[in-house]
């Protein structure tokens, strides 16, 4: 099975070029670390936003040390995983450069088994100013790009970073840097599940037909087994065996569910969620598993000619829906302090207000899994901007 060790302890930060290191929180961002150490005032009070614009022009360094136990040196594969780096980051492990990141929205994985030392290991992350990085790209472009939100200096279209950080009509300009998502070591042997895509091929009252596209990563040539079962009653619904080579292999499994319980938006029916357990076997032993929770439903956009032109109506399970909802923006300028409790409070408030749809605004982020999971539970459809 996969093993994970989170690296949250012992972090320190400093402004590049300064001598003193200060305690840091990971996951976090530099504004929160400066605030927690009493180095800046509250950015949301009085005119403090204007007085804190210097932060975006600076480079920031983070460091920590960790001691892996003997277990980690015995594993076949060990990766250092950053679920999110904001944004232009250079990572060094024990003095060796292992990663250069330039995208806030994606995950980064680096094989590090050969770089781990017995005893203490040092991890450093240098964040370069997102403004200065984007400004150099802006200078090479033959004409300006529109960025009405970006009051100064119009660099936001040139970087893969949440646009609202650069200011908006509803929020301040606070351009962050930091390890804003979890960081951890992950170990695995023989093979693992890298991704599961569920493709609904047919969902009718009589039968649901689902295709599971499973991406398996193997470190050697071997025969694997894949099994899919329903978590509720452990009913096995599909299985397959195949030979894989080192690298990635995609395996498709078909699942049929008679008389499926379908998911409905709030106010139209039950929000039933199936839990599928996908297990991976190598050399006849379980090496990985994932649980996929999803509702079974069809969603159609009905565009039919009428007296005014063409309709624009969503139908769920064949039932036309009157969409009632709101625009969802990020809950905070500083993303790491948005807790699951806060997500639940806001989404349950939307549900109590009889909303059945939220539009995830495109100037923020691809929301965390907890957001989509709660929408599933509460019967809220998601209109996703990109």
Write a structural description:
The chain is mostly beta strands and 386 residues long. Helix content is 13%, strand content 42%. The chain has 6 helices and 27 strands. The protein has helices at 30-36, 48-51, 70-73, 130-140, 340-352, 369-378, and strands at 3-6, 12-15, 22-23, 60-66, 77-82, 88-93, 96-102, 108-111, 121-128, 166-168, 171-173, 183-188, 191-203, 207-218, 222-230, 236-244, 247-258, 274-282, 285-294, 299-302, 305-306, 309-310, 313-316, 319-321, 325-328, 357-360, 381-384. The chain has a 6-stranded antiparallel beta sheet. Strand 15 and strand 16 (236-244) form a beta hairpin. The longest helix has 13 residues, at 340-352. The chain is globular. It starts with a strand and ends with a strand.
Topology at a glance:
Blueprint: E1 3-6, E2 12-15, E3 22-23, H1 30-36, H2 48-51, E4 60-66, H3 70-73, E5 77-82, E6 88-93, E7 96-102, E8 108-111, E9 121-128, H4 130-140, E10 166-168, E11 171-173, E12 183-188, E13 191-203, E14 207-218, E15 222-230, E16 236-244, E17 247-258, E18 274-282, E19 285-294, E20 299-302, E21 305-306, E22 309-310, E23 313-316, E24 319-321, E25 325-328, H5 340-352, E26 357-360, H6 369-378, E27 381-384
Parallel strand pairs: 25-26, 26-27
Antiparallel strand pairs: 1-12, 2-3, 2-4, 4-9, 5-8, 5-12, 6-7, 6-9, 10-11, 13-14, 14-17, 15-16, 15-18, 18-19, 20-23, 21-22, 23-24
Helix pairs in contact: 5-6
């Amino acid at each position: 099975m996969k093993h994970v060790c989170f690296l949250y302890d012992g972090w320190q930060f400093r402004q590049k070029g300064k001598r003193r290191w200060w305690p840091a929180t990971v996951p976090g961002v530099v504004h929160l670390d400066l605030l927690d150490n009493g180095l800046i005032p509250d950015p949301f009070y009085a005119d403090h936003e204007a007085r804190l614009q210097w932060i975006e022009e600076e480079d920031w360094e983070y460091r920590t040390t960790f001691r892996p136990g003997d277990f980690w040196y015995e594993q076949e594969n060990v990766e250092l995983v950053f679920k999110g780096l904001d944004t232009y980051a250079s990572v060094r492990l024990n003095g060796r450069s292992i990663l250069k990141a330039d995208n806030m929205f994606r995950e980064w994985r680096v094989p590090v088994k050969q770089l781990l030392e017995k005893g203490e290991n040092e991890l450093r992350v240098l964040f370069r100013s997102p403004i200065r990085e984007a400004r150099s790209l802006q200078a090479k472009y033959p004409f300006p790009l529109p960025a009405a939100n970006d009051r100064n200096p119009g660099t936001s279209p040139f970087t893969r970073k949440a646009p609202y950080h650069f200011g908006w009509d509803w929020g301040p300009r606070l351009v962050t840097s930091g390890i804003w998502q979890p960081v951890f070591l992950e170990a695995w042997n023989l093979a693992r599940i890298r991704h599961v895509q569920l493709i609904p091929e047919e969902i009718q009252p009589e039968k649901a037909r689902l295709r599971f596209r499973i991406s398996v990563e193997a470190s050697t040539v071997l025969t694997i087994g894949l099994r899919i079962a329903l978590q509720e009653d452990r009913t096995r619904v599909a299985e397959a065996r195949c030979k894989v080579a080192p690298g990635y292999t995609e395996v498709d499994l078909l699942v049929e569910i008679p008389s499926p319980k379908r998911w409905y938006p709030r106010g139209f029916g039950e929000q039933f969620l199936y839990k599928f357990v996908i297990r991976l076997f190598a050399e006849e032993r379980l090496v990985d598993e994932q649980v996929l929770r999803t509702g079974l439903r069809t969603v159609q956009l009905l565009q039919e000619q009428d007296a005014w032109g063409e309709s624009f109506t969503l139908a769920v399970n064949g039932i036309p829906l009157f969409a009632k909802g709101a625009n969802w923006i990020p809950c905070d300028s500083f993303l790491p302090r948005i807790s699951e409790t806060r997500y639940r409070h806001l989404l349950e408030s939307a549900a109590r207000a009889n909303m059945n749809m939220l539009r995830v605004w495109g100037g923020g982020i691809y929301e965390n899994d907890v957001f989509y999971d709660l929408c599933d539970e509460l019967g809220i459809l998601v209109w996703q901007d990109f």
